[in-house]
Specification:
about 30% helix; 10 helices; SepH-like; DUF3071 domain-containing protein; four-stranded antiparallel beta sheet; DUF3071; alpha+beta
Length: about 280
């Protein structure tokens, strides 16, 4: 095993610079896991509870498991980042264990029937596109339902790409939770949840009023045919006269029918008869 000596931080402050006995340089990224591992030995010398602080060790570890940063936990708990780091060791190791299990999950076989793990599939997708795989970073935290959220950051032309998945350790199941995650493992993009529209509560609002339905008029075919076949009769005018005209007298007509009176129409009574004209 080659022994390395710490030479300080790199210029960007995100890596440690290491040197071996032959003067060859190495670097390691300063991650939360690295900080937690370095601070782990101090756990035995720290009291379990600090009565002067508003956040407990259990709460610190719960929030770390949920993915919150050291700085956010320290600010909300009115404590120091160093205090959070002291109790972060077991949780950060648990998160690294979940990432290791997820990356080692067999996804498919290649053309030579060799198993390809999740981590290999992702890197094989990024490397041909000019992505520096050394700049790829992984992160994970546990969600409220117990499923672990896996997050991958990788450099791209826009600066930084992000892909996410959900990992169920008990079932050994991994599913993409965004388009980039689906693309990296050659799966269909997850279905997007449609948002519901606004519904007004006022019963008199126009959106709640139903338009009256106009029932179509039903016409029977038989009625339609009868209406076509029937021809309306031409009305004829009738003239009633009581006194015959000169032309009527020549035809031998001496009298005409008398127009009934109103009493005869209404009550059936005959008016006084008038002598017929001779």
């Amino acid at each position: 095993m080659t022994e390395l000596r710490l030479d300080g931080k790199t210029e960007d402050g995100n890596h440690l610079s290491l040197v071996d006995g032959d003067g060859k340089n190495y670097s390691v990224r300063i991650s939360d896991t690295l900080r937690a591992t370095v601070n782990q030995p101090r756990l035995t010398s720290v009291p379990a509870v600090d009565a002067q602080e508003t956040i407990s060790v259990k709460e610190i570890q719960r929030r770390l498991r949920a993915g919150e940063s050291f700085e956010q936990i320290a600010r909300d708990g009115q404590t120091t980042v160093e205090k959070v780091e002291r109790f972060s060791g077991p949780i950060m190791q648990e998160r690294e264990y979940i990432l290791s299990n997820a990356r080692d999950l067999v996804m498919r076989k290649d053309s030579h029937r060799i198993d390809l793990t999740f981590g290999e599939v992702v890197l094989a997708k990024l490397a041909p596109r000019g992505v520096d795989t050394d700049q790829v970073s992984w992160n994970t935290w546990r969600q409220l339902d117990g499923v672990w959220h896996i997050e991958l950051h990788y450099p791209n032309r826009d600066g930084n790409g992000v892909a996410t998945w959900n990992f169920d350790l008990a079932r050994r199941a991994l599913d993409a939770s965004d388009d980039n995650g689906a693309w990296l493992i050659d799966e269909e993009a997850p279905t997007r949840i449609s948002t519901s529209a606004m519904i007004y509560s006022e019963p008199t609002h126009p959106s709640r009023l139903e338009e009256p339905k106009i029932e179509p008029e039903i016409v029977r075919i038989a009625d339609l045919i009868n209406a076509i076949d029937e021809k309306p009769e031409t009305p004829r005018l009738a003239v009633i006269r009581e006194t015959p005209t000169a032309a009527d007298s020549q035809d031998g007509i001496t009298s005409r029918a008398k127009v009934p009176s109103w009493d005869e129409i209404m009550f059936g009574r005959k008016s006084e008869e008038t002598p017929e004209d001779n």
